[in-house]
Amino acid sequence: MRILHILNHTQRQNGHVHAAVDLACAQAALGHDVCIANGGGDFDPLLHSKGVRTVRVDHTRSIPSLAKAAFRLHGHIREFKAEVVHAHMMTSAVLAFPICRIARIPLVTTVHNEFEKSATLMGLGTRVIAVSDAVGASMQRRGIPASKLHVVLNGTIGSSRLEARAGEPAALKSPSILFVGGLHPRKGLPDLFHAFDIVHESFPAAHLYVVGDGPFRGSYEEMVSSLACARAVTFLGSVRDPYPHMAAADIFVLPSHADPAPLVLSEAREAACAIIGTEVDGIPQLLEYGEAGILVPPRDPSSLADAICDLLRMPEQIAAWKAKSQLRIENLTIERVARETIQVYLAAVAPRRVKTQAF
Predict the structure, then answer these.
(1) Three-state DSSP class for 105?
(2) Number of helices (H), then strands (E), in the chain
(3) Which class for 236: exposed (0-12), middle (13-18), buried (19 or more C-beta within 10 A)?
(4) How far apart are alpha carbons 270 and 71 in whole angstroms?
(5) What are the residues facing 7 on neighbouring strands?
(6) Which end of the chain has the lower number of beta carbons within 10 A, N or C?
(7) DSSP structural state of residue 234
(8) Whole-number Å distance between alpha carbons of 9 and 40
(9) ∠ CA 26-30-35, rounded to 5°
(10) For residues 346 and 36, is the Cβ–Cβ distance under 8 A?
(11) Is the pLDDT of residue 167 over 80?
């Protein structure tokens, strides 16, 4: 198929971008003709090396810029002769919708962050992909017909983006607890800090490592500085590849309040981490509903502390949960994501082909 993806940019440190780049490269590897229309970014060289074309479409949110973007996008769709257009962000979907309607080309959208109010606009697609069962159910409650919703669970194993990763584990103090992600309120980091403060009372040798950056880093560092465990918490900032830290960690924790289908859990499971995650959104599905990782209630530092302490108290359980992380891990490959997404495209294209043949 001739597939044109649209997203705001191809910069690193953005889950939407990582998922789209992984998908585009995997589709190209399956023999499809793939192009990404975007504002440019870090991943363009990788995309080119994997046979994915890129064209510039500025997504700046101003009327003159968006008018110019729509004109350019229309030209790229015609020149590329796209059979399907796939939008990954709200601005991209709004830009593509009228063009696809006029050109009679199916528009497929992916809902990455359903907790955003603007996610409802992804319903403009001919077909709408939800990145987990929880997201699919949420979008139905928000008025998206079940007939055009398809669930394609996120997965990263085998991603071209991760090919050049370092294999050597990082040097972490043991026992080590690791968090990887954006430093934003929805990730629930204050819960982890308060939970670790409880853990530190019984296990003073334990160390918490925080990998990632974001607008709340300063306030989080200040919060931690007031806790008894402050000296046992290290903020590592953003790293190009967190895999070495995952490979070295004793326990990986994701204390999110909202997380539709975090890619980091696929990466943590590939690294064979013992995982603790909150029972929200797509996290249970990515952890095989508690079979591949421990699930705890969100916004509950006490329960999170108990789960961490239980593992630290019995190191053999850490090894057991590392082994459990590999349960049905083949379901988290990017090739599976790419093949299932192609089936969504075919479902979107089929009615158009039937109409064409009728004439």
Answers:
(1) coil
(2) 13, 13
(3) middle
(4) 42
(5) none
(6) C
(7) E
(8) 5
(9) 60
(10) no
(11) no
How far apart are alpha carbons 302 and 202 in whole angstroms?
A: 14
Calpha distance 132→265 (Å, rounded): 13
Beta strands in 273-325 (DSSP E): 274-278, 294-296
pTM score:
0.93
**Residue 243's pLDDT is what?**
95
Per-residue pLDDT of 204-217, as tens digits, reads 999 999 999 999 99
Cα torsion at 27, 258, 195, 270 (round to 10°)?
A: -10
Three-state SS for 357? Answer: helix
Check whether 353 has a pLDDT greater than 60. Answer: no
CA 90/CA 119 separation, integer angstroms: 7
Listed as own residue / partner, the contacts of 41-45 with beta carbons closer than 8 Å and 24 or more positions apart are 41/9, 41/10, 41/11, 41/12, 41/17, 42/10, 42/11, 42/12, 43/10, 43/11, 43/12, 43/17, 43/161, 44/10
The pair of three-digit structure tokens given for residue 290, joined into one six-digit string: 């508690």
SS3 content of the chain, % helix, strand, coil (to 5): 50, 15, 35
Among candidate residues 302, 306, 262, 305, the one with its CA nearest the CA of residue 282: 262
If you write DSSP's letter for every residue of 145-187 in order, what string do you get?
A: -GGGEEE-----BT-GGGTT---SPP---SSEEEEES--SGGG
- Reported as a pLDDT band with limits 50, 70 and 90, residue 359 is very low
Residue 123's identity, in one-letter code, is: G
CB 198 within 8 A of CB 64: no
Q: How far is CA 196 from the centre of its chain?
A: 26
Q: How far apart are CA 170 and CA 97, in angstroms?
A: 46
**With contact defined as beta carbons under 8 Å apart, do 223 and 193 qualify?**
yes
pLDDT score recorded for residue 357? 40
